[in-house]
């Protein structure tokens, strides 16, 4: 039901930190804070980060008296490498900090990523870097749908829209060179106009028709029908219209 859909966000927030047999673990990455009692002492841990658009995590651990406990930090498996306070950490595992904690301490985690082309069905590929999947951003044409005077509840600004492509989308990659540009975090990061990250890729147009107004599942053929051009990629969640799975083209 619709009213259950929003439960995911508070439940996700509740899952960022969890207790373990010997202390506390950071199990999911998001700016968050936890305060609890361990061994008759108060422990406060905060995480500050712009993840998934940034690869740096800053933990602040504060205790009201010297306390012995473990702090485990989950290192995502998609990282090519990672470091915790300069020490190498293993991707896909928890990095364990077992010590006597005194006062306040800062822990910095750096997650390193590589661009990966994921093989998909029908000999297509998708671009992923770290936690983000990237799509070719399609320019949009928004048209209000007019249902007439009898539909007073569906007039602007509560009307429906159809969103049509206003730029080419029938592309294939010609190489694996993806360049990234970081724009900083705005008020609405998951937005085509305010995406914190943009990428560029080299592509060519191919013969990829529509069937009854809908893009065909696969292109007709994979021969280039244009010169090589550069297109913009955005994180999948920052797009409304997108092409995510496309082929490699030999030129």
Automatic annotation (TrEMBL):
InterPro entries per record: Beta-AFase-like (IPR049174), Beta-AFase-like_GH127_middle (IPR049046)
Coiled coil location: none
Non-reducing end beta-L-arabinofuranosidase-like GH127 middle domain boundaries: 27-111
Organism domain of life: Bacteria
Name of protein: Non-reducing end beta-L-arabinofuranosidase-like GH127 middle domain-containing protein
């Amino acid at each position: 039901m619709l009213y259950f859909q929003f439960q995911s966000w508070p439940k996700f927030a509740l899952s960022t930190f969890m207790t373990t047999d010997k202390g506390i673990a950071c199990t999911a990455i998001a700016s968050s804070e936890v305060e609890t009692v361990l061994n008759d002492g108060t422990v406060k841990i905060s995480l500050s980060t712009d993840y998934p658009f940034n690869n740096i995590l800053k933990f602040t651990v504060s205790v009201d008296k010297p306390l012995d406990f473990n702090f485990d930090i989950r290192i995502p498996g998609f990282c090519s490498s990672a470091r915790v306070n300069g020490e190498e950490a293993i991707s896909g595992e928890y990095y364990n900090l077992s010590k006597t904690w005194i006062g306040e301490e800062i822990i910095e985690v750096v997650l390193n990523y590589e661009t990966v082309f994921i093989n998909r069905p029908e000999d297509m590929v998708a671009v992923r870097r770290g936690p983000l999947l990237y799509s070719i951003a399609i320019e949009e044409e928004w048209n209000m749908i007019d249902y007439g005077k009898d539909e007073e509840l569906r007039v602007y600004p509560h009307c429906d829209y159809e969103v049509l492509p206003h730029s080419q989308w029938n592309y294939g990659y010609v190489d694996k060179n993806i360049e990234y540009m970081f724009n900083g975090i705005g008020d609405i990061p998951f937005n085509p106009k305010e995406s914190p990250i943009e990428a560029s890729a080299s592509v060519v147009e191919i013969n990829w028709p529509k069937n009854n107004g809908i893009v065909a599942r696969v292109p007709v053929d994979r021969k280039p029908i244009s010169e090589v051009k550069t297109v913009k990629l955005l994180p999948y969640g920052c797009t409304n219209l997108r092409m995510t799975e496309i082929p490699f083209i030999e030129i």
